[in-house]
Specification:
The complex is a heterotrimer. Chain A is α/β, with parallel strands linked by helices. Chain A contains 38 helices and 31 strands. In chain C, helix 9 (266-291) packs across helix 16. Chain C is of the alpha/beta class. In chain C, 54% of the residues are buried. The chains are: A alpha/beta, B alpha+beta, C alpha/beta. Chains A and B meet through helix 2, strand 13, strand 17 and helix 17 of A and helix 2, helix 4, helix 5 and helix 7 of B.
Amino acid sequence: MSETTVRAITTADDLDAMRDDYLERTKDVTLTVMLCSGASCLSSQADEIEDALARELTAAGLSGTALVKHTGCIGACGVGPALIVEPDGVFYCHLKPGDVHEIVTEHLVNGRVVEHLCYHDRDTGQAVPAFDDIPFFARQRRIVLRNCGRADYGDLGEYIARGGYRAAFKAITEMTSQQVVDEITASGLRGRGGGGFPTGRKWAMAAARPGDEKYVICNGDEGDPGAFMDRSVLEGDPHSVIEGMLVAGRAIGARHGVVYVRAEYPLAVERLKAALDQARDVGLLGEHLFGTEQAFDIEIRIGAGAFVCGEETALMSSVEGRRGEPHQKPPYPCDSGLFGRPTIINNVETLASVAPIISRGSAWYRSIGVEGSPGTKVFALAGDIENTGLVEVPMGVTLGEVVFDIGGGILGGKQFKVAQTGGPSGGCLTAEHLNTAIDYDSLVKLGAIMGSGGLVVMDSDTCMVDVAKYFMQFCANESCGKCVPCRIGTTRMLEILTRITDGEGREGDVERLIELCDVVKDTALCGLGQTAPNPVLSTIRYFREEYDEHIRDHYCRAGKCSALFVAPCVNACPAHVDVPAYLSLVAAGRPLDAYRLIRQENPFPSVCGRVCTHPCELACRRGQLDEPIDIRAVKRYAADTAYESGAVGTEPIPGHRDGSVGIIGAGPSGLTAAYYLRLRGYEVDVYEEQPVAGGMLAVGIPEFRLPKSALQREIDTIRVTGVRIHTGVAVGRDVSFDDLMTRHDALYVAVGTQLSWTLGIPGEDLPGVVHGLEYLRRVNLGGTSPQSGSVVVVGGGNTAVDAARTALREGAEHVTILYRRRIMDMPADAEEIAEARDEGVVIRELVSPVAIEASDGRLAVHCQRMALGGFGKDGRRRTVPEPDADEVFMADLVIPAVSQFVDSSFTSPAGVRVTSVGTFEVDGTTSMTNVPGVFAGGDALRGPDVVITAIADGKKVASSVDRYLGGDGELWKGPAIDVPEPVLDDGDTREHGRFGMCYLAPERRGRSYDEVAQGYHRVDAVAESMRCLHCDRR
Amino acid sequence: MTTTELSPASPGTSARPELPDDMTDDVRTRLGQIVARHQDHPDELIQVLHEAQALLGWLPHEMLTTIATGMGLPYSRVRGVVTFYSLFTTVPRGRHTIHSCLGTACYVRGGRDVLAKLSDTLGIDEDETTPDRRFSLGVVRCVGACGLAPVVTVDDDVHKRVNPNKINDLLERYV
Amino acid sequence: MVHLEINGHVTEVEPGTTILQAAQREHIEIPTMCYLEGVNQVGACRMCAVEVEGRPRLMTACETEATEGMVVRTNSARARHAREVLFELMMSDHPADCLHCARDGDCELQDLGRTLGVSTSRFAGKMSRSQVDDSSRAIVLDASKCILCRRCVSVCNEVQGVGALSVQNRGFHSQVGPGDLLLDQAACALCGQCTVVCPVDAIHEADGTRAVWQALADPSKTVVVQAAPAVRAALGEEFGLPAGTLVTGKMVSALRELGFDHVFDTNFAADLTIMEEGYELLGRLVAHFRGLGLVDDEQVAALGLADLPEPTLPMITSCSPGWIKYVEHFYPEHLAHLSSCKSPHMMLGALTKTWLAQRQGLDPHDVVTVSVMPCTAKKFEVGRPEMSRDGIPDVDAVLTTRELGRMLHQAGVDFTHLPDDEFDNPMGVSTGAADIFGTTGGVTEAALRTVYEVVTGRVLPYDAIQLTAIRGLERMKSATIRLEGVLPQWSFLEGVDVPIAVTSGLKGAAVLMDQIVAGDSPYLFIEVMGCPGGCISGGGQPRPTTDEIRRRRMAALYREDAGKPLRRSHTSPAIQQVYAEFLGSPDGHVSHELLHTRYTARRPV
């Protein structure tokens, strides 16, 4: 494309001539198509798109007026192949060669934007045609990437037309070496390779050395995995690097330049070589630059696959043709570097920032970014993030802005856990740090480093011990082996980490790791060894409990360390129900045995088959192929079939154990503990304040989600074992806590969270304002009168959604939920929210009530509209009131449902310790409170949580109580059940989505409390259970 | 990881495992030209090794002795350089070279399972070649296409978002 | 001068002095492992890590130069703890089988453990290397013992310039070795300098003691031992005597204690070598001048020189087998420059199996010859095909000085209290010229003492023209001898200058060989010894070998030379007797059969 007439450039006029020549060449161009030709897009058929463009443009007769530019990486690799149409500034992405025809005919010829090929916002689903409106691009400030995505990488004329080589001309002809050094020093530019060493100071030291046999090295090793900005600059704008090196050569008085590029970037080498030849042809490299005495030429040296060669002294050894082994500093390279000569080594991104600083001045550069870290930084977003790719933002931008606003948040809507910067030398930034400004100094304080800018985002499915092991494996593989602490230290640390992830971790392993880390950091010869411990120290600092869980409980909460569990689903289930086993039983047509197998670990199969939040399905590996197995529905099928067949007998109690256990609260946690303790042979009495047993299952969850019949028959299977349940007995009122302590040998406090938090706003005690839990209790216990008019529910949790759907069934015409954050932040189950909206419930996000007033027989809820603020400690966005933006909602009934808390007052005489928020405080291993023999668990321990966690706590306490009373803590779970071998597809598994379950159509729900989800038909259940990939077979 | 050098030595036997003799006269002449171009620049050894490896896809022992004598370097130093850098290989590669990326981004997006499935399907481990010399399997630490993680490269093709369950139809394209 | 403070002591040192050197001057010990003065300063083991105020990390004392106002603490808790953990890490990748390791009690890793007082070993894990390369008859590489301190790599590449050893692979699997071939196949001179610097038992000489013990225990064998000049100047160090103690007498009685039947002195054969090599040099000079037409056939006949050798000049000495193997590998087209003489101990071995066997009526198959040498390459030399006739090797086994020390310990010989004894005849008597064979410049001086006298009829004055230019330690020396007042039959040599070069260590030798390859070598005679300083610091000598110890051993040989009545090889009665009874004339037919050899070209890589 670039047939620039070749003439030597010695004066400013020559540069102007080159610019005019380019403008002349493109004067009759009305439309420009900037086709991203970065390596990633190229690998996704960008070249075929280019051919299609050429064909279509000539066919449409536009080849004269439409110019196709091969640009460097636009930055949005996740949505490539992509192109931009100028002057309209429209961005098309996810392109296939077939789409080109439509773009040319519709847009280029007829000027109509092709919506379905534009970028679509993930939340709203709307198309966002304009490049500048897309958040990913809008918030960027492109200095290093100024030409990437805009200019044709191979067109020297265009580079000059966009201001290129003016800085080199100025530095060489109008400035002295000292002035150039001073300007760079004044700009405050710091090394972008990772260390952040002030570039000006480095240049000054080299400039002070006599002679002109000096070297300028551009470090393009970019060994950090997860970083690819150097690659994109070299491929997309090689001249910016060449010009930066020319200025550097002028500054320190050097004649030789070397660009060290890793061999894994062949495209970058090819395009850099072409750019060097272009520059030489016009005299921008070689002797007598711009007619002066300054000479400078650049040679390319290719690496050969060694991460350590990113370290400057190792890099120089590699350029000298030797093993890439570093040596001690001092002597520093600026004193004696390549071939013993004074040498400066700067990263690609640093050098690409030099020309703009010289052209536009250090004051301009210092005005960007923050004190101590001026200018911009290019980040490579990757990992579990929606928008992967390159972004260049001013220093000081917060981590949350990069990950959520620019990065589009976590892939698949999962939860943010960690952003890892600095690769194998870096550290973790957790949800607590989302408000932290990203600059050199603040990152170091958090035990992380800026690194080259690779920012790998990891969601909650990430095991931090596994991440530490991954980075240590990387460092052990890449260690050059020269010095003892790194050669042997990394391997020994890796062995300890491997032991921990294999479930063979020993007490003291973490302390030993820390000790090794400190010594390796303190004594290793080079940067690799000195920073190899950082990922380990950082994960220990922020995720120490995960290490302890691996060592003490052989439990990997992220489900990654396969040695610690049978299958990911079993591991994700708090009660560790053997899912693959009961799926095999259902598949083999034995639902009754499936039911019995489930009951071994969870006495509430029918309840959980309906209301469990199914963490198992999130972990199901089938999700990576097509859809996760509908495990909850299969469990419900097994339970319902068993109950309907009447074959649910009572398990014989194997043996009598002397000892009596009292349980306060007949919720799922209390009843589970009662069940297992009874099976162990203890006498068990359960005391329940409410008139019915079941806790939240009875009074909190409405009939249409959990029919009372399904609940009661399950409670009966527990009652029939001999557990005595005393309903309507309130401890502290009808019987004292002390009496129970004397009457029983052990007590389990499982009272749950019965009291609702108040909104704390005026008018909350008006009649017509009923708190969520109280409202659901009244409906569930049958004490309410039909409701009409409109109902306003305040809150985002399951209680709020249940209250709203119940209000509809009680007759309310309009039900509105007000939530002060975004819908995506609502803690309620996503399926329940969708059901509620199907049934007509309106959800208004970012609205928060400030006062309730009675107004002519109705209630006026005065609210304030909220705006997004910083990030909370849990990674969710906090909200702040929008100034003077309020709204009033009229209602006949207002139901505040903003979480519940524990009423622990009844235990106060016995001095049971509680936390500041009223939940009980227990020993992590035994679940015992500070009072011997008194245990606590479920929501009373954790605050409002889900039913399966309460059940798991019940089992854990049953085991601890048995151990406390002299037993071995082994729960009796009934006779073993033989599980048949599963039938599996051979070879690659064929894709097949879930078998659908039938639901009551929304319009037929109206005011009926019939159960919405109607469970699996036998054939569907068997078929669905055969989709299981059986990760348990290894 | 490069293969470890010395097999347990017993006097007289060579320390080199049995390797095919791919050297032909044409290869020898082209190698001679490469060495001649960099004759009096021992510091360009790594560039020479890249050009030499491009001839056969791997570096037979004879190539290294030719390079060592040609550039006036001790053989042990040339071999030391070759075994230091992971892109040089002294065992023959298959017709197609597969690199499973285990950079941080690809690892986080499941690169580990992709490598395991590749190794399972091909029946070979890292740095090995299938008996029929159709495929060589290697690990690479980041090819800079993190936006498309997890990535697998086969020769020059870059395959993006590779699903471990769909390995077979990825491999079928390469005979 | 630079002022710094170490552990509270203020001191002043020259710029460029390292913290380690400064500390040693203040009698402050800093533990080191990979550091070896003058050989290895690479900062690989980090054991000498010290705290330097203002530096974020510990700095290695061996590499960090003292700077003005530096404040150093060498024994802070942080530094000591770091060293202990580093030592545990090193031990975790080292087979802790000290009790049956040859270096037990003489191992720097053991000494370091004792200094640090480390009692725990908490980081056991997989071992990185396990191969043993015992392919070579001279040197064994036991990778499992290697701690990768890289001393051997430095001495082989930087000091000797051979480059047979380099670090292979990367990271935990790094390994020192010749690459994907066995040491026996590598272009290695087997000079053994690596075995001298190795702090542990990773590189050591191939064992010769077992074969010698067997021979001594076999009543049917007559076991003859000889000892090289350099052994007597160093053997005492194996028993705690100060370096440079001359123990010739005690050595002879010690060898008798072990049960050797005859104890000969390699010096005898050194004098013999001077005769053979001296006349070979003269032969080449004569052939050279005849080539120039400056001497006619009668003069040649008058000189009694039978068949003249090729006039290949300069002639280079051939008594160092490491040097010989080096030339065969790297300069195969220039083997003709090497003297055809065998090394002294090979000559003595050949004479033992022929002349001595005949004199004593012994069947050569029942005679076992053992050489005690300061050298590892000799273990290879004795196995060369040219070094045996009709299947009978001239020398059956070689023991290094270290191995002799070990055998004497095994035999319970209380060396320091032994009385002196005399070598046996006829191969026990020798001149002072033979003694100085063991040191660099010695062979040249010995040869000149004879050649000068043959040509001029005058005795070369020992002191006046001691050719100081070629004494001392500098690695490369040269001198020129002007032949004046020559005897009539040597008239063509009148006023001829004989430029001589002397070097020790293969790096210097390469410089001289490159001059020959380029065709502009100014010399007529070159002496090369494979090891820096000559055989007194050979690959088989006691550890350690420092410059100071080299000077002391050298002085011992010169002392023995000065103390001997006979100091010129041709005046030795034993030499005159062997020529009269057996050899006839120097370079004669019998000499060529027994005392001369040939060389084979080897691959350079």
